[in-house]
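Course exercise 7: structure representation. Students receive a sequence record and must write out the corresponding structure in token form. The form below is the worked example handed out in class, using 3-ketosteroid dehydrogenase (462 residues). Read each field label carefully; the graders check that inputs and outputs are placed in the correct fields and that the protein name is recorded exactly as given.

STUDENT ID: A-19
EXERCISE PROTEIN: 3-ketosteroid dehydrogenase
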Amino acid sequence: MRVLPAEDASFEMRMPVVVVGAGAAGLTAALALRAAGQEVLVLERDPVPRGSTALSAGLIPAPGTRWQQAAGEADSPERFAADILAKAGGEPDAAMVRAIATRIGPVLEWLADRHGLDFSVITDFRYPGHSACRMHGLPSRSGEELVNRLREAAEAAGTEILCEAQVTDLYADADGRIHGIAFRRPDGGEERLGCGALILACNGYGGNPALVAEHVPQLAGALYFGHAGNQGEALLWGEALGAATRHLSGHQGHGSVAHPIGILISWATITQGGFQVNLEGRRFSDESHGYSEQAAVVLRQPEGIAWSVFDERIAGIARQFEDFRQAEAAGVVLSAPDVAALAAATKLPEAALRATLEEVEALKQAGATDGFGRSFAHQPPLVPPYRAVRVTGALFHTQGGLVVDEAARVLRPDGTPFPNLYAAGGAACGVSGSRAEGYLSGNGLLTAVALGHAAGEAAARA
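STUDENT ANSWER:
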């Protein structure tokens, strides 16, 4: 992960644009480049493109889309931007937030019209912090389907994707212009490739324990549920070049990963009237605030474990997600006809669990707010059979990174852009601020797709 002097390298061949990483950000950038008639090579370290995108639910928030309009859902970029800024406590750059919120809707419609991605909007529940139903996904509601469809579209558009090619070094001159890269093949052979522009779409540093301990110490040693290839190359290259960085402590966690099997359990299990208890059978937080910040809260409980408790009605909503269906097939979603059976199945103290359930149902009936600050107004009661999943907290991906402008150009500390360097997705500073609670659901794929598109357009123009 070095930045070396350009004068020290000779390049076997040259491409107009090279993209590092074939997740949602890199593939969207490649599609934008091909739409402009530009040749592009995407280098991917894995045998097939997957990355963090494949591990996600594949949901992209976007305002004012035709799918929302068809569902009668009123929304706008301004409203979406306000939600992002409110969740992040006003920390992100407001102009950047507005630009991303404005770009994403047209990009999703372009992906649908030009490349056949059949998005639809989720209307049966809202994620925390969203004032409108604006989560868009493909039929399976899985990130694996999203990255596969983007890859198929990129290949059909003439994008060359070279897998099992790990970029090791960048070659730059004294002005910060990138002249090329070096990458390593599986057999250990190294090649040097010149480029006119470079797009870093290789995500953040969640898979690098040293960088996590440095920047997100509260999750050091926690379960990492992201892609192992997220080693922080973009951050380290950027720092070596003298690029500006921001909000490096920002991250997305999740307080509902089935343990020990490691399957994401939809947060709809909570927002639709469910709750979490610790191994003592007691609630310990306002679960409705958001799944990202809940990761550290769960990890502070005995053994770092919680049980998510809900019912069959909520399970029916969660079944639209491939992950939840997999969890049911694996047998980790327990079912019980009454509280006594639920306590026996979960090995939780029956008296405490019964008292917790009775308290929650009383709060719902009264439309009241509990001592943690969670409102139970307009929440339906839980009806047997009950459902429960043993979960833990995990780090998904980091949200801080290289500072970019609205064209995804990497910036120096003085605000000037590097001549031909771009970053998108987890490689760039996102719109979640410096804290886990700043993460609004979907922010990761939002910046992957929106900034990926911006980077592709800008690199094509340049």
